[in-house]
Amino acid sequence: MTTQTTAAKTVAAPGPNTPTGLIGIPADLGRALATGGSVLAVVSTFLAWTWTAAYPGDLTVYGYPGGLQVLVLVGGALATLFCLASYGVKGLGWLTPAGADAAVKYAVLGTFATAWYTVISISVELGGVVNLEPGGYVVAAATLIALLGALALPFERPEPDPIDPEAGGWEQFRHDAGHAMAVLRAAFASGSPRPVRTLPSYAEILVIVAVLAIALVVFTYGIGTEYDEQFVGFLITAGFGFSALNRSGLIAHASQISARHQNITVCGAFVAAALFPFTQTDDQYATLGVYILIFATVALGLNIVVGLAGLLDLGYVAFLGVGAYAAALVSGSPSSPFGVHFPFWAAVLVGALASLVFGVLIGAPTLRLRGDYLAIVTLGFGEIFRIAVNNTDGTSGPDLTNGSNGIASIPDLNILGFDLGVAHDIAGFTIGRFANYFFLMLLITAVVVLVFRRSGDSRIGRAWVAIREDETAALAMGINGFRVKLIAFAVGATLAGLAGTVQAHVTYTVTPEQYLFAGTTPPNSAFLLAAVVLGGMGTIAGPLIGAALLFLIPNKLQFLGDYQLLAFGLALVLLMRFRPEGLIPNRRRQLEFHEEADAPTVLSKTGA
């Protein structure tokens, strides 16, 4: 009789290249925890989080989310959708063209951060966790469970770089820390999105309309946040939500579709912006809107100088001041020594031409310089302008600008009988003074965008890019570098002066202190340059979005007091560290900063 024995089956341990998560939870269990935690976070927003209405937003109501609960609801719903897409649920595959796991991690992390920020804020402001209702405990536990599950999702771990066996303790620490950061980046990395399939034209246009509608809703909600805690929560949710959408590949697909219909996208964006005043019940937030448009228009003009031509201009705000002062002097202000009142179109021409003349006068003797030397000269011009208008007060110099008091009582514009200084009723909506100027600035912004697009695609625009990339090579190819740079300087100055003419009438007063190199209140040269770099040099949407963020965020962070600029500067440093090409970069700059990430993983002999 023969007895057969079978060897016991053993489970093989994960190999070095087997995808694993950041924490030791099985991937299937982690995915289930992330999904369940996200669903529970959504449910918790319909519960009361605190017992008293003393905390802003009234989080005491059952069945009706309010305040920060709405942000957690949005983040939890987004995380739930990505989790379901990771299971391959039919009809949700379009949500994750680049893979779902990285999007799940960002969405869950954003929901966790917003929920725990709210819970901690309630405990601190009201005097302890005893002020939490069951909903507060539920959302804290649910988002924590979801985060642990998301961190367990598998990813390809990078191999550690070799190290010298004789390396000291500090070198070993740096090596281990660098590998840990590489592992963390790999955990939140996503693959390349699959190409978007061609849809019927009407379907792609509907996609563009939907994207613009979402953008309008997000902007309207952000600018209309009523208290500090809500705005901080909005920043957390919007930041992680955008990252999740980007990692999922939806942003790339939307960009590809909008690139096929550029004219429709641009027109749709301006239509969406024109609808903003109709979403407001008063003129309060239209004030921020018109200042954002002024700031954005000037930043777009600077983008021609810096982004296209590569000329570092640190005194660009002076051209805005030249346009504002020139328009104020001829617009009927009692502080003006000329005593004239030009119509709007004439004041616009005066402001734009004055900035053009100053741009040529400053650029002609200085644009033969390069790099840091040109930056120093432009910085000096900005300071000279401010000091000059401060001294032309009739005492230190000729009586022209009224010195430090500035030119005050600038009258409102009246265009073809339409007084921009009074409210008007349009289709049942009351459009106030600042909304009137918002529409005017929107029209001027459209003109500036048109100039930027046409000049960037023209022969002179190609010459600007050639000068920016390598001036020596461009000169060797026959490009007249001085002429090309002077044209960029003049066009940029003219566009800034155009915005300055409207700024003078919006603010009623122009003073030298409005045109500093750096300060807490934009626009100033440092903020303008930061808007271009933050948004993305050489693009249209980049400086517009960068200017909106740089104006809106400091305005909403005033509760930080003396720490406002510290927090703002830290945020900029982190953003430039992890996304140096800007929020909306052009393809060339994206490849410059991410060559390794875009390189093929398997090299041929030629590639090697």
Automatic annotation (TrEMBL):
Topology relative to the membrane: Multi-pass membrane protein
Keyword annotations from UniProtKB, A to Z: Cell membrane, Membrane, Transmembrane, Transmembrane helix
Transmembrane parts of this sequence: 32-54, 66-85, 106-124, 136-155, 202-224, 230-250, 262-279, 285-307, 314-332, 344-364, 371-389, 434-452, 486-506, 526-553, 560-578
Domain of life: Bacteria
Keyword DNA-binding: no
Protein localization: Cell membrane
Chief localisation class: membrane
InterPro entries per UniProt: ABC_transp_permease, LivM-like
Protein name: Branched-chain amino acid ABC transporter permease
Organism from which the protein derives: Streptomyces lusitanus
